[in-house]
Amino acid sequence: MPFYYNYTGPYPGTLRLNQANQTPAEPPAPTYQASAPYYYAGYPIPEPAKIWYGPTKAEVDAQNVALAQGVGAYTPMNLVPANPGAGQQFWCKELNDCYTLRTMTDIETSCQPGSWHTSAVGYPYFIRTKPPA
């Protein structure tokens, strides 16, 4: 059959020629119909999970602050270095605002009252305070 005749075969997707410019025409797009729910081995495929909207970040933060206040997380405490080595020394800010090196035993026995602090770099130091009158 000559190429200048339009030809449509009995099956979808067969080649058709356009007489005007002799180029193959696109076959029509296949159409699909929605089917019944798909079953696998006799069991239906589960539906997608339900969307659950929980608390917002601000609500969670507010709950955490309330919980922290309830358990005393904001109560000031005196943190002491744990298990210092024998003879290990720490900086101690004296009552006259000068710093000296003292052992943990010396701080616990003769430098009270006072409180432990942590420097910006991370090392612990002790600040002496005047005893109550």
Describe the structure.
By secondary structure, the chain is α+β, with helices and mostly antiparallel strands. The protein is built from 2 helices and 6 strands, in the order ββαββαββ. The protein has a 4-stranded mixed beta sheet with strand order 4-3-6-5. A two-stranded antiparallel sheet has the order 1-2. Strand 5 (114-118) and strand 6 (124-128) form a beta hairpin. It starts with 38 loop residues before the first strand and ends in a 5-residue tail after the last strand. 2% of the residues are buried. The model has no long low-confidence stretch (mean pLDDT 79).
Indicate the low-confidence ranges by residue numbers. Answer: none
Helices and strands, in order, run as EEHEEHEE
How far apart are the termini?
A: 120 Å
Q: Find the count of extended strands (DSSP E, 2+ residues).
A: 6
Average pLDDT over all residues: 79
Main-sheet strand order equals: 4-3-6-5
| Oligomeric state of this protein | single chain
Residue share in helix: 10-25%
Largest sheet: 4 strands, mixed
